[in-house]
Design a protein that fits this description.
Blueprint (H helix, E strand, L loop, with lengths): L3 H15 L4 E6 L10 H8 L3 E8 L2 E7 L5 E8 L5 E4 L19 E7 L6 E4 L6 E5 L7 H4 L10 H8 L6 H6 L9 H11 L12 H20 L40 E5 L2 E5 L6
Antiparallel strand pairs: 1-6, 2-3, 3-4, 4-8, 5-7, 6-7, 9-10
Helix pairs in contact: 1-7, 4-7, 6-7
The structure holds zinc ion.
Zinc ion binds next to loops.
Length: 286
């Protein structure tokens, strides 16, 4: 599932293609699941809008829109869900070109043709956990975004300590709770916990201030490093140009159960914490 780094990589790669361009045509699939705003409304309202840029809140991508008169006209929100991809349609990805009408790939739910651009932007999502919505007015006040905590890329030890304090849950659950900090999912929670030496099942209220500082630092560095190498390509994640990320090669514990710990050569274990498959080293993490 794409987490903060994969979404940020997508944002950075897609923005130069779409920034300043007018959406000249919109095609939607017949699928119901991805559309929080009715597909018909998405088609009608998006056509003719200019994309000013792409922002991000946690795992949400936010396309800022402007109407023909140059006034702000809301936001296109895209969440990649489990298997969502935003790609620039090219022949290499099986896209025949503009003017083809309905996409032949049934997993393409949204297609944006852009003025002066040969390749459309495609939202493809086989499992349909991804979401598309048009938000009028101030996007930050939309319920889906308003409930999100601050971005995990800027996590500070004091803020993490406060979020964990008095909580009767595990520290991993605190990291995964998007209302505390936005953007961390299963992979980066496990990786950051390993790098800080904190066991995922540790009761959150037992985290010391020093550990909170180390864990927040580990979260920031793991996320930044993952962005640098293009995210983790597990399951279906691809860059907008169809290439993949490389952070999975650097995973210390995630998806490595039974393999040797990269620090102590003990065995990486897998268990369930916060209802998620969780990877850790029993020797290095306390
Ligand atoms: Zn170890």
């Amino acid at each position: 599932m794409p987490e903060l780094p994969e979404v940020e990589v997508c944002r950075r790669e897609l923005e130069p293609t779409v920034q300043g361009r007018v959406i000249s045509g919109v095609v939607t699939s017949k699928a119901k699941n991805p559309f929080l705003t009715a597909a018909r409304v998405v088609r009608e309202r998006l056509t003719g809008q200019r994309i000013l840029g792409i922002g991000r809140r946690g795992k949400y991508l936010l396309f800022a829109l402007q109407d023909a008169r140059g006034a702000a006209s809301g936001t296109l929100l895209v969440h990649l869900g489990m298997t969502g991809q935003l790609v620039v349609g090219t022949k290499a990805l099986g896209w025949p070109g503009n003017g083809g009408g309905v996409p032949t790939d049934p997993h393409i739910h949204l297609l944006l043709e852009l003025e002066g651009c040969d390749s459309p932007v495609l939202f493809r999502d086989p499992r349909q956990f991804g979401k598309i919505a048009l938000l009028p007015g101030d996007a930050a006040r939309h319920p889906r975004l308003a409930r999100l905590g601050p971005d995990a890329l800027g996590m500070e030890g004091d803020a993490l300590f406060s979020a964990a304090r008095g909580r009767k849950t595990t520290i991993k659950a605190v990291l995964l709770d998007q209302t505390n900090f936005a953007g961390i999912g299963n992979i980066y929670a496990d990786e950051a916990l390993f790098r800080s030496g904190v066991r995922p099942s540790r009761p959150a209220h037992k985290l010391t201030k020093a550990e909170a500082g180390r864990l927040a630092y580990a979260v920031r560095t793991v996320l930044m490093r993952a962005i640098e190498v293009g995210g983790s390509s597990v399951s279906d994640y691809l860059h907008p140009d169809g290439s993949s990320g490389y952070f999975q090669i650097e995973h210390a514990v995630y998806d490595r159960s039974g393999e040797p710990c990269r620090i102590c050569w003990g065995v990486v274990k897998k268990t369930v914490v916060a209802q998620r498959g969780t990877h850790f080293c029993p020797r290095c993490q306390r």
